């Protein structure tokens, strides 16, 4: 991914400079082909990549086991940081929301989970499921310590990932492209005129983002705001635009200068923050369900569910089960998060099922769902922060009804 980022830099140079490089058209095709293969066939739902520990790399297409004892799940922190770097470069080549969506997925899940909330412990590997040999725990340091300084460097440069901005073709017009949402402010100059743009939000818990542009009235400014794919196009822009002063293109809501001149203060409310079930590609042959809310992927831990002692391998979910939200605070901290609660079913194998056999009987899963339990899920980034015995899982068995 780091090498591909360098290739993307060369393509960016070709796009922005007068001097053309003869091979960049082929480079761009290769970048897109490899990007699509990675995101469509080799990426975990947390934004992690690389399932093979032996060479810290990819396996074959759709080979995405959740844990070591299931075949491997490496998902190294540094790899997801490289994906973010590559996505940021590709946004300069082609402003397409699919790149920023993956950048956000990696940041809020596989990258954020790699550092403890107090910044003193880390993960190198970010598995989606624990096991007896690889429990969900953190270490203070590593023999090969690339991930801790890499993630701190990323946090230090995060402002460069939020947006890009500047002058449109030296025409005295400004542009601002917003890729990620948070609380931030940026200042820059166009044609000797100072521009200040501010965003304010409670992202990733709430979809309301408030914006304010401060610039001379004579400066025409175009602003593009990402509408995440997981929102399914649900958003509200206030004040409501008139005519064609606002429209969607490749995952970005484009606000033209006419709208901005009339409304230097405006808000965007992204919808679809209700909890949802997601599942891996069927070609992975996993048949699992995972909970998600907004850009966050959730996991289940034994610290909230002390009834579990087998790494949640014997627990299943039904997609018809209602999901409830609960706002919580970490003990001794002001860190607020939203936990999700739903029903799950724990099933202990019968004696006749415990041995290996060259086949299995297919029956109605609802009749053997097991004992119903209340399950508590927390954001994946929060794992291994609150004690427990290191039992954790992202994808639980999908209990299907054949009726």
From TrEMBL:
Residue ranges of domain Non-reducing end beta-L-arabinofuranosidase-like GH127 C-terminal in the record: 281-394
Domain Non-reducing end beta-L-arabinofuranosidase-like GH127 middle: 176-238
A Pfam family of this chain: Beta-AFase-like_GH127_cat
Residues in Non-reducing end beta-L-arabinofuranosidase-like GH127 catalytic domain copies: 17-158
Protein name as it appears in the record: Glycosyl hydrolase
């Amino acid at each position: 991914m780091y090498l591909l980022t360098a290739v993307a830099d060369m393509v960016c140079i070709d796009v922005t400079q007068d001097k053309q490089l003869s091979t960049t058209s082929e480079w761009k095709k290769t970048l897109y082909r490899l990007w699509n293969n990675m995101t469509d066939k080799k990426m975990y739902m947390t934004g992690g990549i690389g399932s093979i520990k032996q060479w810290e790399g990819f396996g074959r297409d759709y080979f995405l086991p959740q844990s070591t004892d299931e075949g491997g799940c490496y998902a190294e922190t540094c790899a997801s940081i490289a994906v973010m770097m590559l996505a940021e470069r590709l946004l300069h080549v082609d402003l397409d929301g699919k790149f920023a969506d993956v950048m956000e997925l990696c940041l809020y899940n596989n990258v954020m989970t790699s550092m403890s909330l107090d910044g003193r412990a880390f993960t190198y590997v970010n598995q989606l499921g624990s096991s007896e040999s690889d429990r969900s725990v953190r270490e203070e340091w590593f023999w090969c310590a690339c991930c801790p300084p890499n993630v701190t460097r990323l946090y230090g440069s995060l402002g460069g990932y939020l947006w890009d901005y500047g002058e449109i073709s030296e025409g005295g017009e400004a542009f601002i492209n917003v890729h990620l949402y948070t609380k931030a402010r940026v200042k820059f100059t166009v044609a000797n005129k100072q521009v200040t743009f501010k965003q304010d939000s409670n992202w990733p818990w709430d979809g309301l983002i408030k914006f304010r542009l401060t610039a001379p009235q004579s400066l025409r400014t175009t602003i593009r705001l990402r509408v995440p794919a997981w929102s399914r196009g649900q958003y509200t822009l206030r004040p409501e635009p008139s005519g064609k002063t606002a429209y969607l293109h490749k995952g970005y809501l484009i606000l033209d200068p006419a709208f901005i001149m009339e409304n230097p203060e405006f808000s965007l409310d992204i919808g679809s923050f209700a909890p949802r079930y997601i599942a891996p590609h069927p070609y992975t042959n996993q048949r699992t369900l995972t909970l998600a809310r907004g850009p966050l992927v959730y996991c289940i831990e034994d610290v909230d569910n002390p009834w579990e002692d087998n790494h949640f391998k014997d627990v299943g979910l039904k997609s018809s089960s209602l999901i409830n939200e609960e706002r919580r605070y970490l003990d001794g901290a002001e860190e607020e998060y939203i936990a999700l609660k739903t029903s799950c079913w724990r099933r202990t194998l019968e004696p006749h099922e415990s041995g290996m056999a060259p086949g299995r009987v297919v029956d109605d899963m609802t009749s053997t769902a097991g004992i119903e339990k209340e399950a508590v899920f927390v954001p994946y980034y929060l794992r291994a922060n609150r004690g427990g015995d290191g039992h954790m899982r992202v994808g639980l068995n999908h209990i299907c009804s054949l009726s």
